[in-house]
Amino acid sequence: MESEEQKPEEQKPEERIHNFNEVCFGYTKEQAIKEAKRCLQCQLPLCEKGCPAGISIKKFIKHIADEEFDLALKTILEKNSLPGICGRVCPAEEQCKKSCISRPAINIALLERFAADNAEKIAKNIKKTCKKIAVIGSGPAGLACSSDLALMGYEVVVYEALHKPGGVLTYGIPEFRLTKKIVMDEVNYIKKLGVNIKLNSVIGKLFGIDELLKKYDAVFIATGAGLPYFLGIEGENLNNVYSANEFLTRNNLMKAYKFPEYITPVKKSKKTVVIGGGNVAVDAARVAKRLGSDVTIIYRRSRKEMPGRDKEIKHAEEEGIEFRFLANPIKITGKHDVNGIECISMKLTKLDDSGRKIPMPVQGSEFKIACNQVIVAIGQGPNPLIGKTINLNTGKKGNIIADNNYQTSIKNVFAGGDITSGSATVIKAISDGKKAAKIIDEKLKRG
Amino acid sequence: MYKIREKKVLAEKTVMMKIIAPDIAKKAKPGNFVMLRIDEKGERIPLTIADHDLKTITIIFLVVGRTTEDLSKLDEGDYVLDVAGPLGNPIEIKNYGTVVFVAGGLGIAAIYPQLKSLKGSNKIISIIGAKTKELLFLVDEIKENSDETIICTDDGSYGKKGFVTDALKELIEQEQINHIITIGPTIMMKAVSDITKDKNIKTTASINSIMVDGIGMCGSCRVHVNNKIRFACVDGPEFNAHQIDWDELIKRNSKYKEEEHECMYSKDK
After folding, report:
1. Is A314's pLDDT higher than 50?
2. Half-sphere exposure for B267 (CA within 13 Å, toward CB)
């Protein structure tokens, strides 16, 4: 039974910095079976407790070990409609994999990805109810909620403001981490479940929530946290200062890295400084690298506090991206275009309310980095478009306030994902969407 | 997919299209715009909704680069892939008194729905201008909906010779003006703003910064207004002209000049 941990092939750093193809190739059939056979099939599978979607991990891994790939995927799809995405972007090392008692722990996410990529997604027959639900936003929360509601028999219409579905999966996470074909495959599966996705539909402008309530029995708002924060320092509006959202949208959604085959341009700069320490900062840095730039990430805390996923940070390091920790920007310099950034060194002091050490500037430690592009990735807030059109209770940062049951201040209007919590993870949004679907179903059944 | 129902060349390089988009048409208000993408490889560009009926919206565009050129080659019955809107804040419709519209070039299309909505309750004076007679359009429509219309061309081939700003300066001396709305090239709007700032006449400008999504998620269109960062797509596109950092806007709008050129060039190949 025992065999070695299976590691998938990866594109070599020196090759992959010149393309946008996936870094990790995923398991081959043989590797997947070997890895699946390492699973101890625990009586009480702790891994399943660590999965926010509640996938029957033990069962699907057994199916892979038995080479029943279709059954493996079927098992996953019972709980999670987006396995190809979750298998790639979930921080598994902090979830399912963390609780695995095998040593080394089973690569559950890679097995999930294998099943998603190697088996046919078959939509089952669904008994329709006559109730209709509108979902606003086709990001992970909206897709998860709508697929679960469709499986329960509801007629679901998703309204998406952009021209492609997927939210951050499409415009934010780059191709080399999550191929857009996978996203479209999973969206197509959800469509096969009967979900109708209406693109170019900016709710709050095209239709108000009040209008939707006249046509639908319930509304689920999952518009995410897509409003970029800026630093508020001098020089921020110089040319070649991008928000990470803009830089990533141009490249991921509009495919500017294929300019001029694709018409949307993006500046190609020699030296880029990315500000921030989350996954968005790391993604932006790695995209800039692939456009031929030298890249430095500056982060005001230390490596240990970086909220970005460890695996991605390692990938960035392998690709030659420099990190400058304990540094904070104070001014962006240049005339028309950026020519540098002035920073100050930071030191970590006592813990704040969130349990993280507060960084404080070190007097007299200012330094400059010459660069001709700056990407600001210091976080995103909720887009205020919807809040403006209807009297929904919102928090200080513009987030929609919903209770533990995803209920907003308006009857039959629910909200979940980043629009309620501020920017978090894909899997948290998926789990919100799933839980909300269950609660919406219960509420509508009760009447 | 959005079908082009009608197409008309209004002037040299100036094309009008009526696009079937009933949901947008029902909600469109003066001052709103749409984001449009022609096809899978296309970029998203913002275009003002110049008019609408129950089923269609009207866009008017000047052929200035790759996308507008590609768009101009489509015919009645053809489709564009994406149209999203109505976006941006509509103008405030109220009784100002005497309102002067100052528009240049494509700005003429943008003021048209605005002056229609303000006419009756306001005295409307329109100053419209273009480089030459061949580039003027909607002249009759603007005239019909204005109490007074002043037309300028840089070369004097039609109406007054000179810039719209010259005509505005003259008008300010003769007329009590309560409100000015200016739409056109950024340089022109800046010049209008400079004139009216000295005279302390309330002026709004509809700015045209570079947009990607048009729904407030990227900040490409950002500009300092009253020393605060504002996104033109969701906070505007209309702002108090005297508070806009015009030099910054001009600088930002020239950002992709080389790429815009490369894009045309790669097509010729």
Report:
1. yes
2. 15
Strand-pairing partners, residue B59, are: B17
Q: Do B43 and A201 count as a contact with CB atoms less than 8 A apart?
A: no
Q: Which residues of B touch A250 (CB under 8 A)?
A: 212
Nearest to A222 by CA among A413, A409, A5, A31: A413
Q: Do residues B250 and B223 make contact, with C-beta atoms less than 8 angstroms apart?
A: no
**pLDDT confidence of residue B249:** 96
For residue A299, what are its two tokens?
Answer: 């982060």
Q: Mind spelling out the 3-state secondary structure of chain B?
A: CEEEEEEEEEECCEEEEEEECHHHHHHCCCCCEEEEECCCCCCCEEEECCEECCCEEEEEEECCCHHHHHHHCCCCCCEECEEEEEECCCCCCCCCCEEEEEEECCHHHHHHHHHHHHECCEEEEEEEEECCHHHCCCHHHHHHCCCEEEEEECCCCCCEECCHHHHHHHHHHHCCCCEEEEECCHHHHHHHHHHHHHHCCCEEEECCCCCCCCCCCCCCCEEEECCEEEEHHHHCCEEEHHHECHHHHHHHHCCCHHHHHHHHHHHHC
- Nearest CB partner across the interface for A161, out of B84, B86, B224: B84
Would you state the structure tokens that stand for residue B176, as one six-digit string?
A: 């009590």
Q: Could you say which of B86, B248, B266 has the minimum Cβ distance to residue A205?
A: B86
Q: Which residue of B has its CA nearest to A384?
A: B216
Q: Which among B87, B219, B259 is the nearest to A202, CB-wise?
A: B87
The mean pLDDT of chain A is: 94
Interface size, chain A vs chain B, as Cβ–Cβ contacts under 8 Å: 115
Contact assignment for B262 to A260 by CB distance below 8 Å = yes
Q: What is the b/e burial string over A373-405, where b = at least 16 CB atoms within 10 angstroms of the residue's CB?
A: bbbbbbbbbbbbbbbebbebebeeebbbebeee
Task: Give the Cα separation of A168 and A435 in Å (integer).
Answer: 20
pLDDT band with cut points at 50, 70 and 90 for residue A357: confident
* A259: Cβ contacts below 8 Å, ≥ 6 apart: A265, A266, B259, B262, B263
**Tokens representing A312?**
């991605």
Low-confidence ranges of chain B (pLDDT < 70): 266-269
Residues B174/B153, Cβ–Cβ less than 8 Å:
no
Q: Which DSSP helix (H) or strand (E) runs through A169?
A: helix A168-171
Long-range contacts of A390-393 (CB under 8 A, 24+ apart): A390/A208, A390/A209, A390/A210, A392/A209
Closest CB from B81, B252, B259 relative to A259: B259
Tell me the per-residue pLDDT of A135-148, one tens digit each, with 9 for 90 and over: 999 999 999 999 99
pTM confidence score: 0.95
Give which of A162, A199, A201, A202 to mutate to test B binding, by max B Cβ within 10 Å: A202
Output DSSP code: residue A407: B
Gap between the Cα atoms of A311 and A332, Å rounded: 30
User: How far apart are the C-alpha atoms of A303 and A369, rounded to whole Å?
Assistant: 20
For residue A388, the one-letter residue type is K
User: Lowest mean pLDDT: which of A89-93, A175-179, B238-242?
Assistant: A89-93
Hey, is A41 helix, strand or coil?
Answer: coil
- Whether residues A206 and B248 touch (CB distance < 8 A) is answered with no
The residue type found at A430 is: I
The string of pLDDT tens digits covering residues B173-184 is 999 999 999 999
Task: Tell me the ipTM for this assembly.
Answer: 0.95
